[in-house]
Amino acid sequence: MQKDPIHAVWRSHSTKWSRVGSPLRPTKEDQRIMMMLSTPALSHSKENSVVVVLGVTPELVQLSWPKNTRLLAFDHSADMIASVWSPHSRNPSSVQQVSWQKMPLSDQSADLVIGDGCFTVLPCADDYRNVLAESARVLKRTGLLVLRCFIRPERSESLEEVLAEVLAGQIGSFHALKWRVAMAIIPDEELSVAVTDIHATFERLFPDRDQLAKNTGWPRTAIDTIDAYHEMDTRYTFPTMSAFRKLALPFVNVVDIRQGHYELAERCPIFCFKPIYSPR
Ligand SMILES: C[S@@+](CC[C@H](N)C(=O)[O-])C[C@H]1O[C@@H](n2cnc3c(N)ncnc32)[C@H](O)[C@@H]1O
User: Fold this and answer.
1) What is the DSSP letter of 105?
2) Are residues 189 and 141 in the same domain?
3) Cα(50)–Cα(142) distance, rounded to whole angstroms?
4) Are 2 and 8 contacting, i.e. CB atoms less than 8 angstroms apart?
């Protein structure tokens, strides 16, 4: 297993990030929906609106933000910042290497907190609570939290079902398969999966990658992104919709939930939340 497990998986991803695709990265349709849900939060500030981006996701940083928007990106991985971060082409923007659990912002100072797939990379329910509480703390009363999340079905599919769909040519992309395998191996009452188990299950189901590439038409370079999980001592979380809403409820209220139309979009809803204020 790797030392420094939290950062190791991102060090490995950072070298191959351009090979990762939807649904792990947001589509143009996701971008449009996220901007539409964010817009009401950006009309209140007399001066600059402050947008916090959780991570360095280029598809969020590079959105066409209104002119008076200042972007603050927070990511704890120096490797992801070095290889994926790029400042906005027009708006003032900066990145800091910090954890979302402790953002360097005062209370009620941000208009919007936005993130893509951020909660899946948090390893346990306590991290969910801490990041939700921290997001609610930094948001103004008129602020919004907009998140695309990876949500597993209330009834898990079996690996046999997933395998049968691959053999029938019914899974369109390797990244969709990766998420379906990950979600299928989480026991019913649990939230998380060890990423090394996603890798091991994939290896067991598909020992011949060249054959898989030939049968499906998926590029080997996309299939090989699974190796970022090999022997990584970190966990990913995929809550069901009911589990996620229960975790979120003490900190934020749901304003809206939308989804796109791409493969697996039903498991990638975009939430718009408003913060619930707790007296301090
Ligand atoms: C935004 S998430 C998910 C990837 C996303 N779907 C995308 O397209 O960019 C990935 C990023 O989160 C960062 N990260 C994970 N947990 C974090 C935490 N607790 N605090 C700050 N950054 C974190 C990782 O370093 C990585 O750069």
Assistant:
1) -
2) no
3) 12
4) yes
Strand 69-74 versus strand 93-96 pairing type: parallel
24 lines ligand 1 (CB under 6 A): yes
Q: How far away, in angstroms, is 83 Cα from ligand 1 center?
A: 13
Report the predicted TM-score, pTM, of the whole model to 2 decimal places: 0.93
Q: Is residue 1 part of a domain?
A: no
**How far, in Å, is the centroid of ligand 1 from the Cα of 55?**
5
Model confidence pLDDT, tens digit, residues 160-212: 999 999 999 999 999 999 999 999 999 999 999 999 999 999 999 999 999 99
Structure tokens at 207: 């020992």
**CA 25 – ligand 1 centroid, Å:** 11
Classified as helix, coil or strand, 193 is strand
Quote the percentage of the chain above a pLDDT of 90. 88
Closest to 261 measured CA to CA, from 271, 250, 270: 270
What pLDDT, on a 0 to 100 scale, did the predictor assign at position 1?
Answer: 47
The answer to whether residues 125 and 250 touch, using CB atoms and an 8 Å cutoff, is: no
130 plus 53 within the same structural domain: yes
Query: Is the pLDDT score of 224 beyond 50?
Result: yes
Q: Is residue 225 part of a domain?
A: yes
